[in-house]
What does this fold into?
Amino acid sequence: MNLDHSIHQLENMDGNGKLWKRTDFARSLITQYNRKGSLSPKQEEWVNIIITENLAAPTVAKPTVTGLTRVIEIFEEASENLKYPKLVIQLGDGSDLKLSRAGPTSRFNGEVQLTDGRPYGQNKYYGRVTGNGELVLTGEGRRHEDELHSILKSMTTDLGAFAKMYGLKSGNCCFCRKELTHHSSLDAGYGPTCADNYGLPWGEKA
It folds into this structure.
């Protein structure tokens, strides 16, 4: 097995929630290979070790959360107005949760990615919502499984109420992360521009 194939296998394991062991180390190897096109002999050994370890790891039942197609629709609709629609809130432990739509160069094009917002290779990758509305979690995502389920369900039930709850709590818009200063924005939990971009009421309409 050549190194390019092995790196691609690691990327697939990560993207499909099957990279349970040495996740951060594996991502650093992937990032270095994609940037430089090579790894040291010792690093190549580690690529194979990580693949072997994760293939041998016990299979964990896949989450049965479905019915999240509305999450995909929210980002599809926003992409008509924005090149990179996103939503950023905080998890209960204070870390960021960023939802963003994978672009055409990604093998998960159109799917919604859940990360902590940091650059690839340095970030925590929680999982993704597939095109058919299924939540696929990584090992990192399973640590926040109940909370992620709750957040996504709240989004699909009423995006406006969800955004308002976060905006009132944080004082910032969850879509653009700007501080809310206008009284109507403070009441709505987001500003007029983001209201237009995401099809939400604002001002007297809210």
User: Anything to note?
Assistant: The beta strands are 86-90, 96-101, 112-115, 125-129, 135-137. The longest strand covers residues 96-101. The radius of gyration is 19 Å. The CA atoms of residues 137 and 190 lie 29 Å apart.
